[in-house]
């Protein structure tokens, strides 16, 4: 039915993909690239409700470890975390489709 399809359809995109550096270290000797192993802390929020849907801080403050460019994370992270310096902080706005 049309109602069932509407319920299972993704929500309309409230944002376009966007990356904002909120903190840059004074010195950067190496940047991340595809294949880099990253350990990051994150907080993921639903844009519509502003509610936290996932966070590394709820796991005993253990950073999340992954390989940049892998299928272990959403494409928005692979795009938005490339070119970062150690200690840099970024805010990513990632559409549902990424």
Can you walk me through this structure?
A two-stranded antiparallel sheet has the order 1-6. A two-stranded antiparallel ribbon has the order 2-5. It starts with a helix and ends in a 5-residue tail after the last strand. It has two helices and six strands. It has helices at residues 2-8, 75-80, and strands spanning 18-23, 37-40, 43-45, 52-55, 64-67, 89-93. The protein has 98 residues and is of the alpha+beta class. 5% of the residues are buried. It is globular and about 40 Å long. The longest helix has 7 residues, at 2-8. Strand 3 (43-45) and strand 4 (52-55) form a beta hairpin.
Question: What key phrases describe this protein's structure?
Answer:
6 strands; two-stranded antiparallel ribbon; globular; 98 residues; alpha+beta
Secondary-structure topology with pairs:
Layout: H1 2-8, E1 18-23, E2 37-40, E3 43-45, E4 52-55, E5 64-67, H2 75-80, E6 89-93
Antiparallel strand pairs: 1-6, 2-5, 3-4
Describe the structure in brief.
This protein has two helices and six strands; from the N terminus they run αβββββαβ.
């Amino acid at each position: 039915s049309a109602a069932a399809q509407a319920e299972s359809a993704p929500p309309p995109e409230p944002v376009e993909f966007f990356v904002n550096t909120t903190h840059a270290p004074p010195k950067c000797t190496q940047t991340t690239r595809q294949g880099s192993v990253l350990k990051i802390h994150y907080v993921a929020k639903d844009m519509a409700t502003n509610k936290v849907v996932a966070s590394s801080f709820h796991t005993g403050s253990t950073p999340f470890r992954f390989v940049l460019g892998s299928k272990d994370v959403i494409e928005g992270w692979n795009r938005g975390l490339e070119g970062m310096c150690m200690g840099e902080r970024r805010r990513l706005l990632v559409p549902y489709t990424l």
